[in-house]
Write a structure and sequence with these properties.
Length: 166
Amino acid sequence: MTATSAGRARIASGQTERVLAAERRIGAVAHLLDDIVRVPGTGVRLGLDPIIGLVPFLGDLTSGLMSAWIVIEAARFRLPGVVLAQMIMYATVDFLIGLVPLLGDVFDFGFKANTRNLALFHRYAVDPGASTSSSWALVGGVVLAFVGLLWLAFVLIGQLLSAVVG
């Protein structure tokens, strides 16, 4: 029995068809955005995300909305909250960095947030009892880094104000 069939055996058979149908839908969108064309002579695949990202803001907004749909579709399956938070982080990072001209398109080429979110969906929809420790570690690390940056910003603003006001 393969890992996938073992995971499917853990969920009810009616649920399996629903999960597989959602996985096909999410997979189709992820494939379109991240991996639709193989670059000739390489093993690298390219999707529409970096291409439509070349259209300032509108292209990034379009791919961002499609990424948001993937997360919303995954949320319908009651994936653990921390996993949904990780999916939201991937989609948000892809969108925000994608807004930076050219750099964002290069980032889209390598990061492939939608493919990452598809893998998360597959893991936790097929095996709802799967460990979420890696998601907790990533989300916790990002939250700690964000809090640290906020603290640093407050300290720097305080230093600036004390230098200006005296």
